[in-house]
Amino acid sequence: MGNLVQAELRKTTTTGLWWGLLIPTAVLALGWGLATGLLGQFFVDFASSSDVDEVSDFLGVSPDQWKVSLFGMARAINISTIFPMIFGAMAISGEINRRTITTTFLTAPSRMHSMLAKMLVYVLWGAIYGLVIMLFVSVGVVLTSESGQLPDAGGWAMLTLVCVLSSILMTMFGVGVGALIPNVAGTVVLLLLYFLVIENVLHGVLAYLEVPAVIGFLPNGSINGLTGSVAVDLFLSTAGVVPPEIEDVLRAIAGAGGALDWWWSGLVFLAWSGIVFAGGWAVTQAKDIT
Amino acid sequence: MHDGSGLIAVQNLTKQFGSVTAVQNLSFTVSPGSVTGFLGPNGAGKTTTLRMLLGLVKPTGGTATINGRPFHQLGQPGRVVGAVLEAQGFHPARSARDHLRVYAAAIGVPDAQADQVLGLVGLGTAADRKVGGFSLGMKQRLALATALLGDPQVLVLDEPANGLDPEGIAWLRTFLQSYARMGRTVLISSHLLAEVEQTVDQVVIISRGQTMFYGPLEQLRQSQQQRVLVQPSDVNALAMALRNEGVQTIEQLPDGRLAVSGVDSKHVADSALRAGVSIYGIQEEQVDLERLFFQLTSGQYAGYAPAPYQQQQQGGWA
Ligand SMILES: Nc1ncnc2c1ncn2[C@@H]1O[C@H](COP(=O)(O)OP(=O)(O)OP(=O)(O)O)[C@@H](O)[C@H]1O
Ligand SMILES: [Mg+2]
């Protein structure tokens, strides 16, 4: 197994895809980070200057101490992890497209061995992408935010943890989908459509039907919940007593409408990744490589 | 995991792609120590058979084993069998050396092995070039280098001469023969008998997914029946005379000549003399292997088993 893992690792490092996708990831993360700080600043200025004192009253802190950056960071992480997911999606579909899968299967004890080795290597890459995303989001946010709006040390640690987790899970999900739909273009288009459009529409419909709780169990809903819930929790921990209606609004802002606790969200998405991977494995196992 | 015998055994192998029967009840074995040619026209089922042997395609029926085991039970397949297959891919952005190092890691052989096989197939100077820029022949050599990485006991090559220059083909020929002489097993497919005639000791000839001939090449050579082609002054009289002497296989060719099998030209000439028939021309036909191969494998899409000489008439043979 160690041999196969090394082989899979070499596959990823001997082509330019990893940095070809890492650069836009970093740029996107940085952009969102910068925008987050600016928007947060704008919001805080607005809240402080106008008569929204009632809000600040029951949040129990003055607006300039609101950690509004948390919401933008959660959003930034959600959007940026699309890239590691695409990277993962190319793992198996790319090999099938280029027909290198033949040699891969000829040199592995079984197809399952190949797929597991790939999964391990892509978990590692997911973590690397996650760290890079966190780094660039943080730089963007720190550059444009007042220190009062930034999380404390514990908050940073927690966000880093969920960012890396989220990135790993998204990568794994991508690997599974790439095995399930062994076609690069098909996989990438489907994933982008689903994560950027289809599920957002679904969220709207579910909210309209007044069953927002379901959202937290959908793939995008659960992965957003992982980071979003942490952001909301961190925000609330310094914001005093908040009525449930306001909490729901905050969750929606964080992109975690109807979401569960962060670790529950993570488990739900892990289950989705597991289902997709199992499907991908079944397809790969039965496939005639001609 | 496996018995180390180097034996390839294909038994009642069948593969159905939807309504297409690619391989039908195919059986043969390949022994170590010899080069076996796997021959058949386009679409005969060669690639499908080899891919089933290598665990890439699931048989509809029957078994294919290497060292007594199906491919997925070999444990470390890269060290047991090396394969060059049709349409085997390379990542165009990877250099030849990197490509080999990826699979060297998978097989578990040291990286130095990558450079060694590159040198062996004559790609030493192209090691750092990206495979995307390789010519067909260079890719074929790289595929062969990949197959040799694990120093396997069994080599399976699907049309390996594709794209090779004459020098490359000559090199491959000697290489495969010496490989087999080390007691290893070499199975090599081709749709041209002439291409492998000088390389192989054994042949398996298939057509329409079925075995047509299986045995030593020598035996195939000897199985060909000599014919005498004769142009007599009176066709009927000569045919009658020969029949009276017990010669049964006589055929009239479109150009008016008689084709007589089972006897030599001297016999035919003597019969003609006794029957008072003049002979304007006589020759002993040289049926070459290629024609024999053609006879064995023809009618792929015709749906009937052609009689040997009927085929030649259709081909405008003269
Ligand atoms: N994936 C597939 N789906 C459907 N039919 C297939 C598939 N692969 C092969 N076939 C069919 O199976 C038959 C045998 O094909 P195969 O590639 O094994 O022939 P071959 O002997 O290798 O021919 P060639 O000399 O052209 O390489 C052909 O009729 C082909 O169309
Ligand atoms: Mg073929």
UniProtKB/TrEMBL annotation, chain A:
It comes from Lentzea indica. The keyword Transmembrane helix applies. The chain crosses the membrane at residues 21-44, 68-92, 120-143, 155-181, 188-209, 262-283. The keyword Cytoplasm does not apply. Keywords: Membrane, Transmembrane, Transmembrane helix. This is ABC transporter permease subunit.
TrEMBL record, chain B:
PROSITE patterns: ABC_TRANSPORTER_1, ABC_TRANSPORTER_2. One of its GO terms (molecular function) is ATP binding. Residues 8-233 form the ABC transporter domain. The keyword Transport applies. It holds the Pfam family ABC_tran. Keywords: ATP-binding, Nucleotide-binding, Transport. Belongs to the ABC transporter superfamily. PANTHER family: ABC TRANSPORTER, ATP-BINDING PROTEIN (PTHR43335). This is ABC transporter ATP-binding protein.
